[in-house]
Amino acid sequence: MSNTGDEFTLEEWEQWMKDWLLDPYTTKLDETQFRVDLFDTTDAYIVEATPSDFTMQEVKLEKQEQTLSIEILPADDITIRKRSLEFPFSLKYNPIRLYLRKGFIEIHILKALDKKPGPSVIRCQGQI
């Protein structure tokens, strides 16, 4: 699989999605940390993170090579909830946008690559 930010094939993406969806560890993390859903649109890969049993106080995204880490600090707890997703391509030049929605967060990994690497950490604080 590609890890340089170059193009990767549709077959690689489909296999990655299939592996992710069928991984029993994914289901366990959905239940113990927070639920994650993935969507593929024309302009972006969208990750939705939905905490089902807590209000969010802080959200931190960190990208390293092919891995996107999502950390959520609940408002009424000191235990950080964390999920990591490893993509079949490098995230180094992909702009990432964080959108706070009522009850969930939306992370857009834009398909249009930047010429220079963007920030590797995005943080948002406050009752969400």
Summary, kept brief:
This is Hsp20/alpha crystallin family protein. This protein is of the alpha+beta class. It has 2 helices and 8 strands; from the N terminus they run ααββββββββ.
Detailed description of the structure:
This protein is α+β, with helices and mostly antiparallel strands and 128 residues long. It has a single domain (10-125), classed as Sandwich (Immunoglobulin-like). Helices cover 17% and strands 42% of the residues. It has helices at 10-22, 24-32; strands spanning 35-40, 44-50, 56-64, 67-74, 81-86, 96-101, 104-110, 121-125. The strands form 2 sheets. A 4-stranded antiparallel beta sheet has the order 1-2-7-6. The protein starts with 9 loop residues before the first helix and ends with a strand.
| Distance linking N and C termini | 36 Å
Task: Provide the helix percentage.
Answer: 10-25%
Major pleated sheet: 4 strands, antiparallel
Strand content: 35-45%
Helix and strand pattern: HHEEEEEEEE
In order across it, which strands form the biggest sheet?
1-2-7-6
- The assembly state of the depicted protein chains is single chain
**Which consecutive residue ranges, at least 5 long each, have pLDDT under 50?**
1-5
What attributes characterize this protein structure?
128 residues, 4-stranded antiparallel sheet, disordered N terminus, alpha+beta, 2 helices
What does the secondary structure layout of this molecule look like, with pairings?
Elements: H1 10-22, H2 24-32, E1 35-40, E2 44-50, E3 56-64, E4 67-74, E5 81-86, E6 96-101, E7 104-110, E8 121-125
Antiparallel strand pairs: 1-2, 2-7, 3-4, 3-8, 4-5, 6-7
